[in-house]
Write a structure and sequence with these properties.
The protein has strands spanning 29-33, 40-49, 52-61, 64-75, 80-86, 93-101, 104-108, 117-123, 126-132, 138-144. By secondary structure, the protein is mainly β. Strand 1 and strand 2 (40-49) form a beta hairpin.
Length: 145
């Protein structure tokens, strides 16, 4: 059996976060949250637009929209950024990615009131997300529509 270990640090000892935009392909598509409160339906939809990912999440109760956010994943000069803008906010909040694999990523913004951490991963046929830091830890389980 052959075992291969890939270094996750660059030549300066910093995390190697040099994946391409295709590293986030596991997000692609329309996802339906399966652990919502009774009477609510939450969707998250991800597309690739040029060289960055765009997401749109919203929660409905009957015909009413309870929550809505727009997200994107973009590459800056120094890191990948997960950007979130919640309905009603005029500016987005950036979270710098601290870990990236071909099926997950973790990002942080320690200056944000809540959440401070956002984690996404693909687990078999589900998309899993978790927010934490500065408030309650909330887990999201999605299945593809």
């Amino acid at each position: 059996m052959a075992v291969s270990c890939k270094s996750n640090v660059d030549q300066h000892g910093k995390p190697d976060l040099s994946p391409s935009a295709s590293s986030f392909a596991f997000l692609l598509g329309q996802w339906n949250r399966v652990n919502t409160q009774d009477g609510e339906t939450t969707y998250e939809h991800w597309t690739l637009n040029g060289d960055h990912w765009q997401g749109h999440a919203y929660t409905l109760k009957s015909q009413d929209t309870l929550f809505q956010e727009w997200t994107s994943i973009v590459e800056s000069d120094i890191a990948w950024i997960y950007r979130v803008r919640i309905s009603g906010d005029s500016i987005a909040t950036d979270f710098q990615m601290t870990a990236i694999t071909d099926s997950s990523f973790m990002c942080q913004n320690l200056h944000n009131e809540y959440p401070k951490n956002i984690f996404y991963s693909k687990r078999k046929d589900q998309l899993y997300a978790k927010i934490s830091g500065g408030g309650p830890e909330i887990e999201y389980f999605f299945e593809k529509n």
